[in-house]
């Protein structure tokens, strides 16, 4: 305050180059959980994490948001996807204010560069009690679960619910465990009730969820993702096992300190709801 200046440390950058054809059973949540397993929850401390490559360019904005949302789980300062036509299209009805995109210099130096061939990746989860405790979903097939939670800023976007609905539609079965649906915003809640799911014959997500026996989609909230008081919707008040699309699985994160949280993509969460076990979505999507 005495100088009128604020000291800011410019973070170094970790660059993640992701190429290869994206398998139909993977989502951005699988990518970021894979990366966390590689660099750990401290591997990005006070660093910028930049995601580039043909796979990233093919992702819609909400999937890009999933990548950038979870860099904080690695200690990251921020997550960056270079602006492109997808970005500009997304912003058309969001703002009329002029803006100028900023990109890494052509001769920029990166602290580290990681390359991923996503065509060789498999669905993954983060086992209790850390987002970097990575395991292949198929390695956890014997883990019996008590509930599924699809929601939060990371896993409660419109595209996340459309992905879950795709699995529910492919199965045509009833869920075997309580399945909680918590949209991130009011717009997402509206989309659940109004947007037709592709190849569903015009059905909305809400109709598909109801047919599958899921709980009625809740009002937008952080919900059980932050634990909170015992009366928070879908809070874990008992030491249960949950597959969740949220971003953190530390002890007590969703309520009970002895709860077991497996972080997963909406595909994996929906597949697990049908079996009552941690389940590879390829069982329903191939």
From TrEMBL:
Coiled coil: none
Superkingdom field: Eukaryota
Molecular-function annotations in GO: (R)-2-methylmalate dehydratase activity; 3-isopropylmalate dehydratase activity; iron-sulfur cluster binding; metal ion binding
Keyword Zinc-finger attached: no
Keywords on record: Iron, Iron-sulfur, Lyase, Metal-binding
Domain (Aconitase/3-isopropylmalate dehydratase large subunit alpha/beta/alpha) ranges: 2-139, 140-276
EC id: 4.2.1.33, 4.2.1.35
Biological processes, Gene Ontology terms: oxoacid metabolic process
Keyword Zinc: no
Protein name: Putative 3-isopropylmalate dehydratase large subunit
Lineage: Eukaryota, Viridiplantae, Streptophyta, Embryophyta, Tracheophyta
